[in-house]
Amino acid sequence: MKITRTGVMLAAALTANAGIIGSAYAEVSPQEAAKLGKELTCVGAEQAGNAAGTIPPYTGKYLGEVPGWNHVKFSGDQPVDPYASEKPILVITAQNMSQYEAHLTEGQKALLKKYPTTYKMNVYPGHRDFRYPDYVCRRAMQNALTAKLVNDGLGIEGLGQVPFPIPKNGMEVLWNHQLPARAYTEEKISDLASVLPNGSIGWGRAHARNLSQANSPTVEPKTEDKVQAMSYNTTLKPARDNGVISIAHEPYNFATESRQAWAYSPSTRRVRQMPGYGYDQPMIGTNGTMTVDEDRLFNGAPERYTWKLIGKREIYSPANAFKPNAGNIKYADMLTPNHPNPEFMRYELRRVWVVEADLKEGYRHVYGKRVLFIDEDTWNAVMADNYDARGQLWKHAMINYYYHPDMSGWQAGSQFFMDLNSGQYTGYGMTNEAKKGPILNESKFTPDMYTSDAARAIGR
Hints:
mainly beta, 14-stranded antiparallel sheet, 29% strand, single chain, globular, outer membrane lipoprotein receptor (LolB), chain A, two-stranded antiparallel ribbon
């Protein structure tokens, strides 16, 4: 199957200035905002398919349901693949990748070259069948007319959900990724696997209880409320970290407020504040294989990088990833050496926004450059290529998102971070063998659960 490259790129002048953000703004004209819900989806994606017919038009025909998944709300049942009967329309291998390299990231190409006998990409028919609730659309329209960047892009003013549905620069696209429409409350027990090249695995497990005020279905998420989200994570594995609790508050403006974080240690029965928590600090419970700001491919304060909008591209991306998150998938089958088993991965040709982050002079981070690939339909980063301080490609990462009826939106499932140098990789956020899958938007968490006193009460 021949795929033509459309190369949908923004104007050169825009790209050249994408990393330069003034102290404020970015609202669009009423005429431009009127495209939302018409030629654009309500959150800003192109409604039409591509000219080649290899990306379908948006239908949004399902709201709060997934065909074949008889989901009971808040039950924690595992996802069922509505496209299970489909077969790949294309298999990309090291042998034929040159025909499709215009639609591959540098990390994908590196994996194909490094593991020519085991790594491949199964590409399936594209689907754009699921939609967001009306309140998400209404907030996106309001933000298009009123939301703005402040403090050189370190903060925003507006409603805390899809702030820039018609973005004009890299920082706006990044904030859409930081504040997409996702779960208001999330509870899950998930597994982490650090897979060595010989196939041996170091395990981690965590119990997450998250509250994202930015995604309340009933209360308008105004940025003047200062806090966009709170997290409460209890480490269950490895044994040496069992019982460690971390609590964090995420602000809307990283220039005026910093991320607040506390940790409870069961060995000392003390709670300590963690100043500067984030960036490239090792994530608790991951055996040092992930940085704090790698969860969801990037999170936290953006000030260490210059964010440049490269444009929009058609890329083979993980999409409609019900299969790799299903409860009938066993880790022993999925977690093969060097990379996850390709037979469980699903790729589709998708339009993605490409944003490049270059480490600023005088700042420190283990990644000198990061390239994020952000899905136009959801504003979630679905892949990242990360480079070391010398500019050498180091890691390729991906997230398997799937539509979840609990919230009528896209849930981050399994994440994989593949080290192209060592051959080791990390599987993160996996729930396949958990007793329950994620429970979303049950709305049973309250802000008073996310305080240092709440953590301290555990040790009493």
